[in-house]
Automatic annotation (TrEMBL):
InterPro entries assigned to the protein according to its UniProt record, in alphabetical order: Glutathione_peroxidase, GPX_AS, Thioredoxin-like_sf
Keywords: Oxidoreductase, Peroxidase
Family (UniProt): Belongs to the glutathione peroxidase family.
GO molecular function: peroxidase activity
Name of protein: Glutathione peroxidase
Pfam families: GSHPx
Coiled-coil residues: none
Taxonomic lineage from the root: Bacteria, Bacillati, Actinomycetota, Actinomycetes, Streptosporangiales
RNA-binding is among the record's keywords: no
Recorded superkingdom: Bacteria
C-alpha cells in the first residue's frame, strides 16, 4: 500500500496531499488529547525534531473512537497539541480508524502485522505505523510502544531515505 494515493484533509481544512511525503519516512500515529498515552506527543515531537532534516516526519491522525478521548474541534486539537506539547508535525482531520466508517487510509493499514503478529483493528490511541520512503508500510507498533524505544528508533533509522 502507498499512502500517497489516499485522500485525507489537514486538521485545519484543505487536502493534506500525502504525496508530499514521497521519498520520506513517515511515522503515522492515531492520536488523542485526553488519553493516558497522550504524553507520547512529547516523544513524537522529539522524533520530529531529531529526524526531520534526514527525511522523516511524524503524521498525527486524531481519532475519537476510543472512550471519546479526542472530543475537541480541529481548532481545539491544534491548540492543545501546540501549547501543551509544542507539536509542529502535521496533523490530519479527525477520522475513524475502525468500524464501518473506517477511513480508507486505515482500511489498508489494519492488515499489517506488528512484531507479535497482530493484525486487525486499531487497538487504542497511539498505535503507530512506519511508512518507508516508497510508501510501503514497514512496521506496526503497539500503542504502548513509547516513541523513544530502541525498537522504534532503530526502525526509523534503518528506513530513513
Amino acid at each position: 500500500m502507498s499512502i500517497y494515493d489516499v485522500d485525507i484533509q489537514r486538521l485545519q481544512g484543505g487536502p493534506a496531499d500525502l504525496g508530499q511525503y514521497r521519498g520520506r519516512t513517515v511515522l503515522l500515529v492515531n492520536v488523542a488529547s485526553k488519553c493516558g498515552l497522550t504524553p507520547q506527543y512529547e516523544g513524537l515531537q522529539r522524533l520530529q525534531e531529531t529526524y526531520a532534516d534526514r527525511g522523516f516526519t511524524v503524521l498525527g491522525v486524531p481519532c475519537n473512537q476510543f472512550a471519546g478521548q479526542e472530543p475537541g474541534t480541529s481548532e481545539e486539537i491544534a491548540e492543545f497539541c501546540s501549547t501543551t506539547y509544542g507539536v509542529d508535525f502535521p496533523l490530519t482531520e479527525k477520522v475513524d480508524v475502525n468500524g464501518d466508517d473506517r477511513h480508507p487510509l486505515y482500511a489498508e493499514l489494519v492488515g499489517v502485522p506488528d512484531a507479535a503478529g497482530y493484525t486487525g483493528d486499531i487497538r487504542w490511541n497511539f498505535e503507530k505505523f512506519l511508512i518507508g520512503p516508497d510508501g510501503a508500510v514497514v512496521a506496526r507498533f503497539d500503542p504502548r510502544t513509547e516513541p523513544d524505544t530502541d525498537e522504534l528508533v532503530g526502525a526509523i533509522e534503518s528506513n530513513l531515505p
